[in-house]
Amino acid sequence: MLAESNWRWDVVHACTNVLCLTLVVAFVVAQILSLFGKAKIRKRSMATIQPEQKCAPQPEMTDRQIGDVIESVVNYREVFGVKKVPYHRLRLHDDEALLRSQLFYENMKMRRCVQEFSPRPVPSKLIQNIIKSAGMAPSAGNLQPWMFCVVSSSELKAAIRNIVEEEERSTYSKKMGADWVLDVAELKVIWSRPYLTEAPHLIVVMKQVEFAAHLINDSNELTSTHYNQISLGITVGILIAALQDAGLATSITYPLYGGEKIRKHLKRPPNEEVFLLLPVGFPAKNATVPDLKRKSLEEIIRCYA
């Protein structure tokens, strides 16, 4: 009787084990099938979803060799899909912000066009940091249409000075009218530009010129966009402020009609134009500047509340 009871118990135990094993196997198979099913669904859904529209990388102006054909290098319509990222900026208390603005104003108030420079060397790293700051300027379509040529060679500075002085001499004697001569007479402007060679560095600011196929006038001719002119003005303003902040001085010099000759001396590509010249250095100990007066705040501001 006992043996028969044990035999029945063994049968029940064996059946239970088989049933449990069957359930485990069924569960594993179901999980595997579920994973395959999800993968197929995800694959089908990815096939039906349109791929994410990514902004095409902005074409960059590259150095070209003299004589290369200027071609369309930018499409302004590409910039409207630029990816946005969070903007993080140090938040200042009103008092601190006011103090900073006052200190910045006091520094800029001392800025003048200096044409007498100290022979004190200017570290290259200092110039690089200033140009990096200028490179942070906003520009139309983020084209950044500028190139800063830092000339430290005495021979090259002398060549650029000769070009500028030759154009100045020719301009004052031939190309400009009597009104221009009278306008500059009070400031004793002459054609000589010795500070171009006396300054340790001469920054030649180049404006990159591009032509876009959709900028066509009524005569079916390509026209250069004027936005680069505005962008260059902004970056030069930041550059001059950075120079002032670092204790350096400069004197804005326009090449007049000598820009093309300067471009060729610097071996810059034809898609660049000389925008202006900035001799850079520490001011001489006995430097003098014209006694000019600025307009008051009341003369340059209008508030609309």
Mean pLDDT across every amino acid position? 78
Supply the CATH architecture of the domain at 117-285: 3-Layer(aba) Sandwich
| Contiguous uncertain segments of 5+ residues | 41-79, 212-217
- SSE topology string: HHHEHHHEHEHEH
Q: Taking Cα atoms only, what radius of gyration do you get, to the nearest Å?
A: 35 Å
Strand tally, please?
4
Helix percent reads 40-55%
Largest sheet: 4 strands, antiparallel
Describe the structure.
The chain is built from nine helices and four strands, in the order αααβαααβαβαβα. It is of the alpha+beta class and 305 residues long. It has a domain at 117-285: NADH Oxidase, CATH 3.40.109.10. The protein has a four-stranded antiparallel β-sheet with strand order 1-2-4-3. Helix 3 (124-134) packs across helix 7 (227-245). The longest helix has 47 residues, at 2-48. It starts with a helix and ends in a 5-residue tail after the last helix.
Summarize the structure.
Helices cover 45% and strands 9% of the residues.
Secondary structure blueprint with pairings:
Blueprint lengths: L1 H47 L45 H16 L14 H11 L11 E6 L2 H22 L2 H8 L9 H4 L2 E8 L18 H19 L3 E2 L8 H7 L6 E10 L15 H4 L5
Keywords: Flavoprotein, FMN, Membrane, Oxidoreductase, Transmembrane, Transmembrane helix
Protein name: Nitroreductase domain-containing protein
Family: Belongs to the nitroreductase family.
